[in-house]
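pinned: reference chain
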Amino acid sequence: MTKIKYIASALFCSALSLTAVAQSLSKEIVIEKDYVPVEQKATRLNETPSIAKIQPTAKNIDFSNWNAPSATGTDIPTLLPYGYNTTHKFGAKRGYLSYGLGLNWNMNGSAGYKIIDKEKTALNVWLQHNSFWNYKNEIADYKQKFLNEIVSLNFAHNINHRTITAEAFYHFARGNYRKFDNITSITSQDFNNVNEFGANVGILNNSDLDKFNYNAKLAYNHFGNSITDHNALSENQFNLAAGASMATGDDSRARLDVAFDYLHYGYTKTEIIYAGGTTVKPNLDADKAKLRLTPHFTKSSDKFLLRLGLNIDLSFSDGTIFRISPDVKMEYKFIDGFSAYLDATGGKKLNTFANIYPQNHFMSALAPINSTYTPIDGKFGVKVGAFGGFKANAWLGYGIVKNQQFAHNSNSLGMFSSSYYSIDLKGLYFGIDASYSYMKIARLSVGARYAAQDAEKGYALGSDRPEYILNANLEVMPIEKLTLNLGYELRGNRTLYIPTWTNEILAYPSYSLGDANNLRFGAKYQINEMIDLYASLENILNKKWSIVDGYSAQGFTALAGFALKF
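pinned: its C-alpha cells
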C-alpha cells in the first residue's frame, strides 16, 4: 500500500508539472522590452554545477527586443554525476507546459505562466517535477527512489528608472537511503525528506549607467533535512548584498560590492542507533558568517577589457578571520576573431547543505561541511573565431584551494550516508572547447579537460574528482521542425584520496569511483508553433558507475513526452 501511495503521489505531482529548481546563485533575471523574464546561468570550470538558491546580488536589467524560445526540457533524472536539468525559460507566449514519462517510473514535468505581462510590471510562476521510483541500485542491492518538486514566483516592476524585484520559492524532495549492516535504526526504507523555501527582495537603479547606479538585495533561505524519525536539520541562511558604481572616465568605472552571509543551524531529534547500542549525534558549529568587500576598477575599449579588483573576506566563527584574493579579468583582441585573456579569481566560499544537496542527495546531516578558501585560481587562454561557423577556446590554468570538499561513505566513522572531508589542492589544469556550425542544419561541439591528480596535488574538475573529462555533442536538423541530438561524456579515472590518521601518521589511501560515461540521444519534433513532441535515451551503453560511494547511477533509461506553449 505504501508503494502504491508513493507512485500515486509522484503521478499526481507530475500531472501538475511541479516544479522547477530554486533560483541559482549564478543566475540573473533579465526583463525584456516587453517584460519577458529570461534566466541566464553563469558557470565556472572549477565549481560544481549545482542547483543553488536565491542570489542576493542584483544584476543590470537589459531592455531589448530579444525573446528566448520556450524550453522543451528532455533531461531525465538519471542520477548522473551532476544532478538534473533545472532551467526554465519564458518565450513570446505567456505560458508553457511539458511532461515526460519513462522507464523506472522516471517522470519529468514543468509548467510556467506569466500572470502579469504589462509594460512596466511582470509576474510569473513556474513549477517543475522530477522523479524516479523503481530503479535497482546495482551496488547496494535495493531500489532507489527519488522525488523532487519546486514552485517559484517571480515579480519585477519598473518605476522612475528603478526596478523592484521579488522572488519566492518552495522546494520539496524525498529519497531513500542505503542500509548499513551495523546501523539498526536506518534502513533503505527510511526516507530523507527535504523542505526548503526562500525569498528575496531587491532594487536596482538603472537611470543612467554612464553616471552613478546602485543595487541592493535581501534574501533568506531555509533548508530542512529530516530522515524519517531519526534526526532533523534546520539550516537558515541570510544574505544581504549591495553595490554602487560611478563613472571615472568615458570608458572606465569604479565599483564597490558588499555581501554579508549569515548561517544558523538547529537540530531536533538527532541520534542514530548502532547494533551495539551506541549513538551518534551531530557535531556542528551553530553559527558562522562572512563579510565580503569587492572593490574593483574596469576600463574597456574596442581592443581590450580590463577589470582590476580584490575579494576581501572577513569570517566570523569560521576559521581564519581575514582573507584576501584577486578578482582580475583581462582580454585583448589582436584582430577580429583572435583574442587572449587572463582570469584570476579567489575567495572564501561557505559550503551549505542547501547547495550540496542537488549534487548529492545522500549527504549526511550529522557531519559538518567546512568552508572552502581559494587563494588563487587563474588561467590564461586564447579564443579563435567565429570563422565560417568555427570557434574555439583553449586555456591553461593553475589553482590553489584550501579545504576542498569531497564526499565519501565513512562507515567506520558512524555515518549512514556520505559525509564530507577536507583536502588541500594545488596544481595545473588545461582544457579546450571547440564547435562548428553548418548553417542551421548541424552543429558539432567537443571539449576536453585534464588535471593531474594526487593526494594533495592536482585540480578539482568536479566533486567526483575525475582526472580528465571528454565530451561531444552533435545536433542536426535533417528536415524542417525535426531536431536530433547525440551526446557523449566521459569522466575518467575518478579517484578520491581520503586523509586518514594511523598511529599519528597522516596518509591518503585512494578510493576509485570508476569511470562515468554516458551516451545519450534526444529528438524533438515541432508539430506547430504551440506543440512539440520529444524523446530521450540516457546511458544507452548501460554503463554502471557510482555517483558517490554506494549509490549508483541509473542504467539505460528512456523517456518521451510533449511540450506545449500557449
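why pinned: The two ends are 38 Å apart (CA to CA). The longest strand covers residues 418-438.
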